[in-house]
Design brief:
By secondary structure, this protein is α+β, with helices and mostly antiparallel strands. It has 3 helices and 4 strands. It has a single domain, classed as Roll (Nuclear Transport Factor 2, Chain: A). A 4-stranded antiparallel β-sheet has the order 1-2-3-4, with no helix packed on it.
């Protein structure tokens, strides 16, 4: 393979994020036309019964013409999650004392939240003309 052909496979820029058993790779690569694109790879470590391990990888190719829509969708979905659930991780895997609430507790909590939000809305729904 020529030197130019082997250079096409090299990463131009890379960023790695390690997250438990998962590792995320953000790699800038070059097209045949010498333009750049992004690959995002999730690599997850699995263990076989015999103790050996292997990695399962999933890859996304993202080209410049899709960057803006991708960023907007990522921002919108991550903001939705943070707005609805906050930044704290809620999981039996991350919290040793995590217990899933029963359906009865969940419905009670929903009605309490609805009552609180109604009273808060009534309180904050004040017009400056009223003062």
């Amino acid at each position: 393979m020529s030197e130019q052909g082997s250079m096409k496979n090299e990463d131009i820029f890379s960023k790695v994020i390690r997250a438990g058993r998962r590792t995320y790779f953000f790699d800038v690569r070059s097209t045949k036309a010498d333009d750049y694109y992004l690959t995002i790879t999730e690599s997850k470590k699995f263990t076989n019964d015999d103790g050996s391990f292997f990695y399962r990888k999933h890859k996304i190719y993202l080209y410049k013409e899709d960057f803006e829509n991708f960023k907007e969708a990522l921002d919108e979905t991550t903001n939705f999650i943070i707005d609805k659930k906050g930044e704290e991780v809620i999981s039996d895997r991350h919290q040793k004392d995590f217990t899933k609430p029963s359906e009865a507790e969940t419905s009670e909590t929903k009605s309490e939240v609805a009552e609180e939000s109604t009273s808060a809305t009534a309180f904050t729904n004040v017009s400056f003309d009223d003062i």
